[in-house]
Amino acid sequence: xxxxxxxxxxxxxxxxxxxxxxxxxxxxxxxxxxxxxxxxxxxxxxxxxxxxxxxxxxxxxxxxxxxxxxxxxxxxxxxxxxxxxxxxxxxxxxxxxxxxxxxxxxxxxxxxxxxxxxxxxxxxxxxxxxxxxxxxxxxxxxxxxxxxxxxxxxxxxxxxxxxxxxxxxxxxxxxxxxxxxx
Amino acid sequence: xxxxxxxxxxxxxxxxxxxxxxxxxxxxxxxxxxxxxxxxxxxxxxxxxxxxxxxxxxxxxxxxxxxxxxxxxxxxxxxxxxxxxxxxxxxxxxxxxxxxxxxxxxxxxxxxxxxxxxxxxxxxxxxxxxxxxxxxxxxxxxxxxxxxxxxxxxxxxxxxxxxxxxxxxxxxxxxxxxxxxxxxxxxxxxxxxxxxxxxxxxxxxxxxxxxxxxxxxxxxxxxxxxxxxxxxxxxxxxxxxxxxxxxxxxxxxxxxxxxxxxxxxxxxxxxxxxxxxxxxxxxxxxxxxxxxxxxxxxxxxxxxxxxxxxxxxxxxxxxxxxxxxxxxxxxxxxxxxxxxxxxxxxxxxxxxxxxxxxxxxxxxxxxxxxxxxxxxxxxxxxxxxxxxxxxxxxxxxxxxxxxxxxxxxxxxxxxxxxxxxxxxxxxxxxxxxxxxxxxxxxxxxxxxxxxxxxxxxxxxxxxxxxxxxxxxxxxxxxxxxxxxxxxxxxxxxxxxxxxxxxxxxxxxxxxxxxxxxxxxxxxxxxxxxxxxxxxxxxxxxxxxxxxxxxxxxxxxxxx
Lengths: 182, 559
Fold this sequence. Notes:
Shape of chain B: globular
Radius of gyration of chain B: 30 Å
Low-confidence stretches of chain B: 55-65, 188-202, 220-224, 347-354, 525-559
Strand content of chain A: 15-25%
Oligomer: heterodimer
Largest sheet of chain A: 4 strands, antiparallel
Strand order of the largest sheet of chain B: 7-6-5-11-10-9-8
Structural class of chain B: alpha+beta
Largest interface: A-B, 40 and 53 residues
Strand order of the largest sheet of chain A: 1-2-3-4
Mean pLDDT of chain A: 84
Strand content of chain B: 15-25%
């Protein structure tokens, strides 16, 4: 730990050099999930968009279209945003990454709402590997890390199954050697 | 062997409180209001006809004059049906008593050296088990009715979102003994004596009852060490009236009341509803702060409060994950603060007026806040004076040594930008030097200052952090800012700093990530698994209810 009793956090921050451009890790150091997962993500989002659009159409036909123009525009805009969101899946999946450091795990997620999370190995309570029908069809799975805090929220969707299981075993092994109390 | 420990019964009056009394009251209300209808249903038409007709006959006169219960009884007596009616009522009462007795007989509990278990139910048995090493806190609750009757409910809370084991109800003294037993079994500190109220001079029955009813349940040893923190009634009332809820809602109510002439009638009704809600919220705040007492028991922090329904909560040390001191704008002139905590195992979803809802100080001055932080987080470890001055500076001073929010952060932090800051605080100095009596590794806490309308200071010991998060929501991203959070168990305290510049945030993230790894490595493995279990012989057996009643008879005969 670099902080001594004399140096406060403010001093530390002022005396430190500027942040490297690729913080916290260089791009190639991040382990990625399989790009095939993007198709699953797109599919799920598109299904939602279609369901929403279909629902809206049903409402229109049942009620005989009583809405004014701006409501139509509003709903169309929302559907368009959802569609764009769906298409961004590829970018989004590329932004998911993890990296096993010496004593903790780094996890990254999100483009518009970027998040980086560091979890010490000893804090891992359990590791969950699940596979829904879509994931199973592509040979993928979803890995979830559970700590005592619900907010930790680290999950890796779209890992190839062998990689997920290997990672799970490795994490459990690391967690066992560093386990601590709550 | 744990399976040999005998099961103990609850207090015989428990079924009454668990639902019996309410049922009786409801039945009484129904009968009083629907008396005529019931009479029509169950009794001869003759009575009704005579009453309606108001005939000038002898009986008719009497009935016409007083067509109430007494008149009904006289009517029955005249018809020799009184006995039958009395018998029916008696059978009904006996059925209720039998059901209550059955429910009492099948409700038992026991404390083994592995868990606290409770069993209840006749047809559908329910067996609840709380392993001793998962117990977070043991609470005593006494509603107004329970206090009159002299009973207390013991609630054993476990970690996680699982249920808790509730013992409804025990006599007040028994409840305290049970709590001591449980805490003794879960703590690692050996004690040479138990709190022993039963051996004090009991006095007459009425004296004892009154004392029990008024009892606020403070650890007797704590009163000597001066670890008590009290809340004067005047301060409590003033603080409630100046609190955020009142400051927001009262102007709305007054505004609508003044403008009632021009507003539709619906809004006036809305004001009444709003007013009623406000009053109930204020009353519940009063209830949670009335006669508030914070003391430090050997095994944890004991918090007690309550006006109509008292509750005492015992929170073991080590379960307290984060502490927050908040000062609403209305209290700033007086310099009052409120302190609340996040504990492992507290179910946030569980509301109800019997919960203290994680508040360890409803209102207090800066000195009180410093004492609470010290009591709750540090338990007399070295360096108290340094900690106190650092805390004072963080609360009301300029916040030396804190990493500030970026100048651009006014967009997301508004007026709170000046005050906002975070700092990794060195709370316990390193005493691992061989010459010191007990080697304590240094401890670090994360402190975050924020807010303007509601000023707050959050402190979280770094051993309690589960993970660290660096986040850039859209607005932060556009401004070149970031936010840092430390994750811990679910609770009211949010450990998060927004509006940091990217450079500062990255640095703090690295620093914190390293710190929590170190803090977590230095933490001992759960002590319960390493310390020998206390011997069973030291435990005191709670008297069974029959012995308790026998005790009453005994003391009466001595009068």
